[in-house]
TrEMBL record:
InterPro entries to which the protein is assigned, alphabetical: AraC_XylS_family_regulators, Homeodomain-like_sf, HTH_AraC
Keyword annotations: DNA-binding, Transcription, Transcription regulation
Matches recorded under Gene3D superfamilies: Homeodomain-like (1.10.10.60)
Protein name: AraC-like DNA-binding protein
Residue ranges constituting the HTH araC/xylS-type domain according to the UniProt record: 213-315
Any GO molecular function: sequence-specific DNA binding
One Pfam family it belongs to: HTH_18
Signal peptide: none
């Protein structure tokens, strides 16, 4: 756990929120005793907070400059959207608390909830090739496209939080980058956005073997770097949609699943060349190749190589 705050002071709570979120003014809407408990885990540039407020906290805040996901576990969060009136999130619901570039205000009613934040640029990075002339991908709704989509996103955020909490210090860069892309892609799948609204053109014609070959060549030369599906598509000179169609049509998989297998093979080779005597560990090697959850790495490794990764390292 990277940070923990506990206080019975409204002034101290406001100071903490100003220091760790954005400039804001808060109040005690019902004049109840104040109690605030906040924890934060960090994975790369993603912050994953759990908050418990024992009073009705009103807030009036400046723009955050980040994607801000709010998942309610108990109580409720009432948000005043500048472009859409007031909406209230109840237990089991998740939503966008505020657009990155707009101020926000509302009341948190004695709630236990989560706040997950990351750079809005990550949405463009996973949705489209990096084109300096392209419009940034943005979210165009503050509620998920369906209740099921919201529940899937809540589950994914929980997984990313557990991954972050599993490291005493910073997570390996590739683990953090992969988790950030995973989260951003999951947000795009859950919320209406400009990328989903755009109609793809020529994707079927571009889904041919040459596309796959160019993509694989790029992945092989960047296998240990933080690359997105958008960057792979750009290297293959096609859209993300065309790239996905090509991999499904010719290899019956997805580009990122193929990249994951390449990294698994790299980890396998490093395990075979390593030794516990030199300080090599399964967890360390897995992390270097972007596998942040040792248990899932071990299961995937056993599925492909028929034995535990520790056996390979010890042999």
């Amino acid at each position: 756990m990277a940070m923990e705050f506990d206080s019975g002071s409204l002034a101290d709570t406001e100071q903490f929120l100003n220091r760790n979120y954005t400039t804001m003014q808060i109040g005690n809407a019902a004049e109840a005793p104040v109690h605030s408990h906040i924890t934060r885990d960090v994975l790369g540039t993603v912050s994953l907070d759990r908050l418990k407020l024992g009073f009705d906290m009103s807030y009036d805040a400046d723009p955050l400059g980040k994607i801000c996901l709010c998942g309610v576990e108990s109580g409720s969060v009432e948000e005043n959207y500048l472009d859409g009136g007031t909406d209230t999130f109840h237990p089991g619901e998740i939503g966008i608390l505020t657009p990155p570039d707009l101020p926000y205000s509302g009341i948190i009613h004695r709630a236990r909830y989560t706040i997950t934040m990351f750079d809005p640029a990550e949405l463009t990075r996973v949705a489209a090739p990096e084109d300096p002339d392209a419009d940034p991908v943005t979210l165009i709704g503050h509620r998920p496209v369906s209740a099921a989509a919201g529940q899937r996103l809540i589950t994914i955020i929980g997984h990313v939080r557990r991954m972050a909490a599993g490291y005493d210090g910073d997570a390996p860069p590739l683990v953090a980058a992969t988790a950030t892309q995973y989260l951003a892609a999951s947000v795009l799948a859950a919320f209406p956005n400009t990328a989903a609204a755009e109609e793809a053109t020529g994707d079927g014609d571009d889904a041919h073997p040459d596309t796959v070959r160019r993509a694989i060549a790029y992945m092989e030369s960047h296998v240990r770097q933080d690359i997105s599906v958008g960057e792979i598509a750009a290297a293959a000179y096609v859209t993300v949609r065309a790239l996905q169609l090509a991999f499904r049509r010719h290899l019956d998989t997805t580009p990122m699943a193929y990249l994951r297998r390449m990294r698994l093979r790299g980890a396998h080779e490093q395990l075979g060349a390593g030794s516990p005597d030199t300080g090599a560990t399964v967890t360390g090697i897995a992390g270097e190749w972007g596998f942040g959850h040792p248990g899932r790495f071990a299961a995937l490794y056993r599925q492909h190589y028929g034995q535990a990764p520790g056996v390979t390292l010890d042999t």
